[in-house]
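Thanks for the sequence, V.! I ran Glycine/D-amino acid oxidase right away. Repeating your input here for the record:
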Amino acid sequence: MQCPKPSISTALIIGGGIFGVSTAAQLSRMGVQVTLINDGPLGNGASGRSLAWLNTARRRSLPYHRLRQAGIERYRVLADRNPGASWLSFAGGLTWDAEDDSNEIADVFRYERELGYPAELLSGEEVSAQIEGVDGAQVTSAGAILNANEGWVDLPSLIHQLAAEVTAAGGTIVTDAGRAELIVEDGRCTGARCADGRTFSADKLLLATGPAVPATVAEQGITIGDDTPVALLVETHPLSHPLRTVLNTPRVAIRPTPDGAFYLDSGWSEEEVVVHQNGTFEALPSTVSELIDEARKVLSGAPDLQVKAVHLGPKPIPGDGEPVFGELEKLPGCFVAFSHSGATLGLLAGELLAEEMALGLRHPLLAAFRPERFAT
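Predicted structure:
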């Protein structure tokens, strides 16, 4: 059976993060001529400062769970096609809660098992015996959940691999173009204009600019709920340590990197970011130091972690916490991608959005995540 032929010949992607580049690569595979424009270098936004934990752990709506599960499966395929890749790992995810009334580990474990999500409940002693690099003595009495199907991806590496595929197929990538505004003619989005005056037109357009999406569509009188916070990600210097599993603990989340460093974040440290009146952000030295201390506590051997970089910037989260994907009903020709779970959904979202843009489909997996839900 022949694959359906695209109903468009050109597409414009605004945004050089994982959603934009993934969609561009998928459209290129379908034979669509793609132009991608970004305000700075590729991956300079939320994708470049993401923990990039591949998961659908804990509780969320069933449509969102199914979408994330399908997203993880796409990475499994990618891993098979890139054996030994240092930028993609499926060494599992381990999580435990605080030793207080907020501890939900027992209920979450049963919930995940009832969904058929791989989950194993481990004591602290079992964690020490089974998970390299973790101090099991830090696990609270309710235990820790090991989700063996989970992993992590280094998004900048993946973005550049996908971008190379786009240019090899004849696509155009324009970086450092500044902010782009939509061009609307007769009620339809026909392209975009960059800050330097350059204009780009196409049959269909995808707006995938992370936390900037709601403000851009608001200029066209369209509302997308926005609950974007400022994220803090601490990057350590590389060191020799056996941890390969992603950790999500009460005071710190930890993800290994391809070069032996760690990425660290948490909810409490995010809340301590200082937002100045001029729009700049600052991480307090005390916050960074405490995050490092919390990481040393849960890592075996309490390694000497040294800060290499502190990454700050908006983390895209829609107003109701769930993704926003698809064409804007009030602005035909313009599609949007706006979601917190960029890493987990990156490959799948690119695939589904490319099909919707090129083939005129409305994929059932995206039915619960249309932008029009905010219109009411």
